[in-house]
Amino acid sequence: MSRNEEVATRFEEMADLLEARDVEYKPRSYRRAAENVRDHPTPVEELAAEGRDAVKGIDGVGDALAAKIVEYVETGEIEELTDLRESLPVDMAALTSVEGVGPKTVGSLYEALGITTLDELETAARGGEIREVSGFGETTESNILESIPFAQQARDRERLGDARPVAEALLDHLREVDAVARGEVAGSLRRWRETIGDVDVLVASNDAAAAIDAFLGWDAVNDTIESGTTKASVRARGMRIDCRVVVPEDFGAALQYFTGSKAHNVHLRNLAIERDLKLNEYGVFDVSGVNEVTGQRAGRRLGGRHEADLYDALDLPPIPPELREDRGEIAAAREGRLPDLLVESDLRGDLHTHTEWSDGTESIETMIAAAADRGDDYVAITDHATGPGMVGGVGLDDDRLREQMDAVETAAEDTDLTVFHGVEANVDAEGGLSVGDDLLTALDLVIASPHSGLGADRETATERLVGAVEHPETDVLGHPTGRRLNDRAGLDPDLDRLVAAAADAGTALEVNANPRRLDLNDEAVRVAVEAGTPIAVDTDAHSVGGLDLRRYGVHTARRGWAEAANVVNARSASGLQSFLR
Length: 581
Ligand code: DGT
Ligand code: CA
Ligand code: CA
Ligand code: ZN
What we know:
The protein is α/β, with parallel strands linked by helices. Bound molecules: 2'-deoxyguanosine-5'-triphosphate, calcium ion (2 copies) and zinc ion.
């Protein structure tokens, strides 16, 4: 977590605690400041080092809040927050995750009944205690009771980008073990869902005890939740990890079963039943000759060593894990119209990168060299322009953008890569762009991104984004909704209208590969693909390492059924140039 994120989280907690104590006005200023600190491109520790005035450069941060930011950077604590927590020792995040329960409710229930956790809330609601509290009634009580299971479930799903590296480190460890023939991720992580309930890992081994020992002995394991002869669960790096061991002959069947989704598997099993076949984690079986009366149910095994055996027995081509959500993939497989999904090597370059000219960490030359090292054919340098949502002097004004044009041109002379000079312009409230028209025309590529006003209603959001894609100079709509996974919902535009407008205007919609964003998400990509709207899969890298996030964008696009033909940066440099014109 960056320092900015830490400060933002603490300010939000303060806002909740103050609101719970019926303090007026202050909660709002803390929330506003939190959002601006979170989005501020300069690390707060750098600002704090320059002094309180530099910190006050953040929108919505005055003397008092600047002092708290400096205090946090210097001491790791905010004294007022510590005091607030002591006076109201509640699990605020858990309690407010219940629909209809806000900080004020939490405050009242703590005062009246001493409720501090979700479990206590449930007990009190079941016991009919809540309806007795002044301001509450039976309806409120039963609403709370109804919403608690969802709140318990929706809590702590991990972001894909946080879980994937943990699972891969575990696989590296397991694959070193002699007893382990194969190790793969399964579950939602293998399907590349944007968030993960728990990590599922599957191991093929003829010595299950040794494989389980190796799993439990991984040095990142914090504690063992349960362990048996062929499966175990642990907590490691803040995540729950389930590991199952099967014999190599069954590995394909088990991998298919534990990859899910449950809905996909149920659909597939029904298809099997129609054909007198049976699917389970041990294989695929012909049960046509099975005698119901004697109860002899096993049938004749047709396969299971390889995952494809199961699909093959149903006369289906293998279905890529990303599609296994029961969203029409089984019918498509049956009718031979599964998409030829995008693969990472289809991408020829990144259209959205930042340098130290705005809030990136590297020089133009370094980012170009890093793109060349990856084997790309081209790269676009697209630093932030000034405008709404850009604070603290991060964005480039038109003069600086003109200066950068020369710098990019010079850097481009030393490389075989085709270098595009672009800009990430901010979309204003009316859908206009924060850069002069003459400059937009002169640049190779224009990304238009919303960075402010992300709480707007659907109609306003749609108008604004449609305005941005219809701007004659816009080439790509960057992170269209502005959401932050597990953090802020972002805009919720009318997707049918947005993708139609983008298709008509010849503007690409971005799939921002940063795993905190994944924006567009999988379902929105599918809508775009079906409308024939061009897509750009970009990393929005702010450093060399940021370029490695590409795979998350690719798999999100795959979950949206995208093919290379849908993706503008899967085109050659000259193909891209003709799109940009
Ligand atoms: P998650 O962890 O909530 O992100 O989602 P998954 O899909 O990883 O679900 P998980 O971890 O509960 O189970 C892993 C896979 O195992 C799941 O995708 C399908 C399979 N599975 C689990 N429970 C059942 C079940 O009751 N029936 C069937 N058919 N499959 C199941
Ligand atoms: Ca899982
Ligand atoms: Ca699991
Ligand atoms: Zn960007």
